[in-house]
Amino acid sequence: MGRKRAQVTLTDVAKRAGVSVATASKALNERDEVAPATRHRVIQAAEELSFQPNVLARSLISGNTRTVGLLTDELSAARFAIPVLLGAENALGNEQMSVLLCDARGDAIRRRHYIRALLARQVDGFIILGDNNEIRPSLSREIPVPVVYAYCESDDPADLSVVADDAGGARLAAEHLVSLGRKRIAHITGDPGYRAARDRAAALVEVLDAAGLPLIGEALFGQWSQRWGRHATARLLATHPDIDAIFCGSDQIASGVTEALRDLGRTVPEDVAIVGYDNWEVLAAECRPPLTTVDLNLEQLGATAVRHLFAALDGDHHSGVIRQPGRLVVRESTAVAGPIPRR
Amino acid sequence: MGRKRAQVTLTDVAKRAGVSVATASKALNERDEVAPATRHRVIQAAEELSFQPNVLARSLISGNTRTVGLLTDELSAARFAIPVLLGAENALGNEQMSVLLCDARGDAIRRRHYIRALLARQVDGFIILGDNNEIRPSLSREIPVPVVYAYCESDDPADLSVVADDAGGARLAAEHLVSLGRKRIAHITGDPGYRAARDRAAALVEVLDAAGLPLIGEALFGQWSQRWGRHATARLLATHPDIDAIFCGSDQIASGVTEALRDLGRTVPEDVAIVGYDNWEVLAAECRPPLTTVDLNLEQLGATAVRHLFAALDGDHHSGVIRQPGRLVVRESTAVAGPIPRR
DNA sequence: GAAATCTTTGAAAACCTTTTCGGGAATAGT
DNA sequence: ACTATTCCCGAAAAGGTTTTCAAAGATTTC
Q1: Where does the signal sequence lie (chains A, B) (predicted)?
Q2: Any CB–CB contact under 8 A between B135 and chain A?
């Protein structure tokens, strides 16, 4: 342990190029007080030794490590966090920055531990990555570097949060159903404890009101599961056999709904059109029929968060809530006359 | 940019405690050449200033950063990588180490870039995280620190790889079906390009041979999708209507198979018992009926990989392939006489 | 031809923490 | 009382890079 590897240091490069470390440093850092010939010699030497500047030593001087801490809350429920993470990592990669990832597993103590661990590693900034678009207590007080919240919203309006636009997504779905001429639209969704569920339901009602249509039955809140989708569908059809569309709070629910409808002898989309939410490929694309659904654009959300983190690192701090719009993905579960080639 | 934050340094702590930095260091590092009273004073001062030792500066001296690089290949197909990652992170967390995560997206150039970036950050070791248990070219030549391969296997026998035991898992499933008295067992699985698919099929045949049973029909290779599961089931029943069990290569396939069987008027598990693979909760537990399946124990696999990485960091380098056993999760799709209260 | 200016280079300082080494003080033993 | 021992503290070094500043060299101007 502690056995240190043979590291190629700037001194080695300088020696090989026959210059001083100072000159070598300047040559490699694109400063212009160095003669072209010398620079070339240094660069060549660096390549020959496959020299990698030691980021750590540099950070002691320049103060930045080109590393951001990414704190997730519940990576095991990874469906949402991963795309955001990927989008973020993408955007970071272009800037030659790296990600230090920690997963707090929804535990406040563990989170504090990780925040300290990341700060000890001199990260330049933090991205707090939520997993359900929910409001949560601000952590910015404990963190002396810029923080951006992604797929969750800080309760401190001075923070910057980038969240998915649930209301907007639901409006897309609702307007799609209305534009198809459906009149008897119902809503089956997940846990009412989730803001996403409430926001989407509210937006649906809003659109229906504007179109002069009723919401058939109450919005049915339950769990985010196929099981609940099946159960709710049976219940709904028992009381309202005349529905012609169901907007579901998630693809998982929609998958259960579709199954139950088939069992009950209704065809999708002819008798009942279905719209899901999340565009979870494995369920949405493999469903019978494939589901029209709302994609949350999570990768873009992650990229947006990173962009704003960079701005903050440059001293340009924004605050408030940015709502990242989703987009409607039309598949057969609403496309009556063959797949609509809309994009 | 480059604006360095006000960092509490050991000097500040020492000053506040009225001792030298050396004494402060010793006091905080639990070395015993410091008077209890002095130590207490230092610790108190450190807490008052909420001092965080600068891990980076320390690493310049001691040579280790307590950070490992985790290089994934395709995080977007996250289903498999995430549990491994979580298990690894868990094991690392206990050792106060951190994870630097990079996702190469299956691109060799990007991978090289990340390896260099991580090396520049002085990571102590690497975990190469695969996503399909496959053999792949060794990267250890380009990496001057210990490397462990997880959920993939290096083609260099000098490397250490920790993979899921596909043959063992398939044996568990096959023996389960045999022990239930099923005699007409078929196999529907995914892409034959995957070693996992071939290994599982081979192990199944092995178990059946040992029990004196035939494999009904050929092993049906296709895609890892519900769609293929449905299609293959229809084909299978057309030629072999008398099957009484199907071992599926994944839960996704099993889900499609189950659906198709129901459509075709067969009951599960009475007429046909089903075993899936992966224990992908969303599909396996929500299926009708819930699926008996093989859990790959991926979290444990990640933890094992980390344990061996630590060993290697301590100079105790192993090599070869470690096969992490899976475990059978029994649910209703094979439990004929009511749910078995096994745990 | 000499002076002034500009370019290029290298020595040394700075960054922050840990560790080593030597000295000083207190305690115990003779 | 004096020496031997133990215990603790402070000064300084080490680690690799960047930056600063002074000096050397080259070029231009008068």
Answers
A1: none
A2: no
12-71 in chain B: CB under 8 A from chain A: 52-57, 59-60, 62-65, 67, 70
A72 vs B contacts (CB less than 8 Å): none
Q: Is residue A335 part of a domain?
A: no
Which residues, 6 or more positions from B266, have their beta carbon under 8 angstroms from its beta carbon? B237, B272
Range of the domain at B193: 166-295
Report CB contact under 8 Å: A99, B100.
yes
Say if the Cβ atoms of A122 and B54 lie within 8 Å. Answer: yes
- The 10s digit of each residue's pLDDT in A230-284 is 999 999 999 999 999 999 999 999 999 999 999 999 998 999 999 999 999 989 9
Closest residue in chain B to residue A6, using alpha carbons only: B144
DSSP string, B91-110: HHHHTT-EEEEEE-TT-HHH
pLDDT per residue over B294-328, tens digit each? Answer: 999 999 999 999 999 999 988 899 999 999 999 99
Same domain for A32 and A85, yes or no, is no
Give exposure, B49-59, as e/b (b: 16+ Cβ within 10 Å): eebbbbbbebb
For the domain that residue B27 is a member of, what is the CATH number?
1.10.260.40
Identity of residue B293: T
Give the chain B residue whose CA is nearest to the CA of A116: B52
Number of domains composing chain B: 3
Domain presence at residue A121: yes
Question: Chain C: nucleotides under 7 Å from a protein CB?
Answer: 7-12, 14-21
- Residues of chain B in contact with residue A84, where contact means CB-CB under 8 angstroms, are none
Contact B329, B290 (CB under 8 A): no
What tokens does A48 get? 């020959």
